[in-house]
Amino acid sequence: xxxxxxxxxxxxAATALLCGSTACNESDDNYEVSIDYSSTQVTAFSLRxxxxxxxxxxxxxxxxxxxxxxxxxxxxxxxxxRTDRLLVDLTTDGCSxxxxxxxxxxxxxxxxxxxxxxxDSIDFSRGPVRLHLVSYDKIASRDYYIKVNVHTTVSDSxxxxxxxxxxxPSSLTDIKEQRTVEFNRKLxxxxxxxxxxxxxxxxxxxxxxxxxxxxxxxxxxxxxxMTATTVSLYILDISGELYSSDNGTTWNSxxxxxxxxxxxxxxxxxxxxxxxxxxxHVTYPYGATSDVNAEFPITxxxxxxxxxxxxxxxxxxxxxxxLKADGTPxxxxxxxxxxxxxxxxxxxxxxxxxIAVFPYYCCRTDTNTWVASTRSVLVAMGGQESATKMQDTxxxxxxxxxxxxxxxxxxQLPKELPSLQGAQVFVNNEEKHSRAxxxxxxxxxxxxxxxxxxxxxxxxxxxxxxxxxNRLQFKPLQ
Length: 478
Description:
Elements: H1 2-7, H2 14-19, E1 42-47, E2 63-65, E3 70-72, E4 88-92, E5 97-104, E6 107-113, E7 129-134, E8 141-147, E9 158-160, E10 166-167, E11 177-183, E12 186-192, E13 197-203, E14 211-216, E15 221-228, E16 233-237, E17 241-245, E18 252-257, E19 260-265, E20 268-275, E21 278-284, E22 287-291, E23 305-307, E24 316-320, E25 333-336, E26 341-345, E27 356-365, E28 372-381, E29 395-397, E30 405-406, E31 424-433, E32 442-451, E33 463-469
Parallel strand pairs: 3-8
Antiparallel strand pairs: 1-4, 2-3, 5-6, 5-7, 7-8, 9-33, 10-33, 11-12, 12-13, 13-14, 15-16, 16-17, 17-18, 19-20, 20-21, 21-22, 23-24, 24-25, 25-26, 27-28, 28-29, 29-30, 31-32, 32-33
């Protein structure tokens, strides 16, 4: 009877293995079987401290899967961690045999008798290591497979797909100008060939197939000025006349002339006009508000970032960089609450126009527990500092634009990606799927899509580059 039970062991329910209790399995003959693996359980496993390998190595958490006989660290060790000479601490149910078998290239496996040689190092670099246990009474035995996972790439790096960039969506064969904005939860990409010939492409998100509609402007547009509020698209012509549209192809004059469009604020469009010889902040459809500060950007400021805080009475938008009235770039950041503009940063490390700013994440790993976490940040990249110099450093802000610092080296742009000014950036959460049955089968990954932009010589980059922090692609721990 015992041999029959042993052969049927692999079909026994998981709870029998986890709890070390009995389980039952009925056949057509209605007989009951039971098995007990409690005598060969691994009750604790960890790596021993070794600062030469990794700080706080002994704090790495290892899961013990008693059902499938697996021991592993779900959160992989940092890229480059050596695993060829590691000491382990493990506890069993008083087993009479505790052997660790690890593979060697071209040779038989090495075998460490853990009961007598606990200070022998184990090589985990050549694949899973087999742990062989025999119960105290020498009746039961079981093998576990131990794997020390290490990231194969730098997990916290910002990766860009440079091999397969998408092309800007357009029906035009020769694109000279481009601008993409979000309107009604869709992306509107306007392209022209430098004349009145234009195309408006509309997509549900950056990864979706766009619908392209060719048309002709009845005026000469300032393509870079196209902006969207929650109720309408807006654009200036080259003389400053403001136009609106609800579909991107039919445009109507608003009956007002502006110097530039600064940002959208909910249903309101915010810009700058020259009134009685003074540069004045204006809104549409409401009118003039206040004089423009000498440090405020007239053109070339970043797209606005919208946010609300618990301590603020009104939602705010912030914008960064741009060109002042005298044509020089400003290193300032400005915030608007629906009533007035306020300078929130006077000396950011960026002094450029056409900076791309967007909300994203950075990853941090606690070197005490080696648990990784993500933190919301604002990311700024690109921009033009002068006629011959581009801004090629990525900066981040942890406090909504008040302070900025150079991002870690792993978040800097690759040398193969040219420095751009005037690019538009959107973050799109995309589902990733797992082969696991439960409990996590899919999760969102925030991919960055960078549209267009111009190089130092003014050439339009007709590409859409996609990027993501590598760690955010990993399946969440479970």
